[in-house]
Design brief:
heterodimer, A: mainly beta, B: mainly beta, 4-stranded antiparallel beta sheet, 11 strands, about 55% strand
Chain lengths: ~110, ~110
Amino acid sequence: GESVGLHLPTLSVQEGDNSIINCAYSNSASDYFIWYKQESGKGPQFIIDIRSNMDKRQGQRVTVLLNKTVKHLSLQIAATQPGDSAVYFCAAWDSVNDYKLSFGAGTTVTVRA
Amino acid sequence: KAGVTQTPRYLIKTRGQQVTLSCSPISGHRSVSWYQQTPGQGLQFLFEYFSETQRNKGNFPGRFSGRQFSNSRSEMNVSTLELGDSALYLCASSYQGSKETQYFGPGTRLLVL
């Protein structure tokens, strides 16, 4: 199966600074990864995804980096804003159980004004 | 396109009762997955349905069950409720259910007293 873990449960960031959230996965056969953002009282919201044939993908103010050698991915948020305060999850498709998405524990990002 | 909807949004039950939660996926999505989210355990996979068939199931007791209808709407049922079943129950939908982005609903907050 797949085990996904986040390196830090909380992250405090000054408004305007860049945020980096890290995630590790256990199954080297995992080939599709997704980052979600969950605000209080809401369901997880898709941010960005990356497949294993890429090592970097950029979206609006967000970049995901994938290092398959060490089974690590990160989410970078540029110019962090108060609206970025939320819990962030990385998720990986379990290559053994094809219809199961495995989630990390989540990192709570707090943006300081 | 309307997002994933879940009803009810909030529910209070007592131990021993049963509960049924409903999920309507995004139009055109045929895969529906259910997750339990608690502060201690994070997002835990319950089961996944596609074309009215359960394709995968997580490590939950048999008190947790689900089904999917021909219009892809899904329900999950929890019988003989326990205090530990208090959680946010999330439903997510996708087209095929494997190696693709899942889109989440707002969840149903269940409190068992």
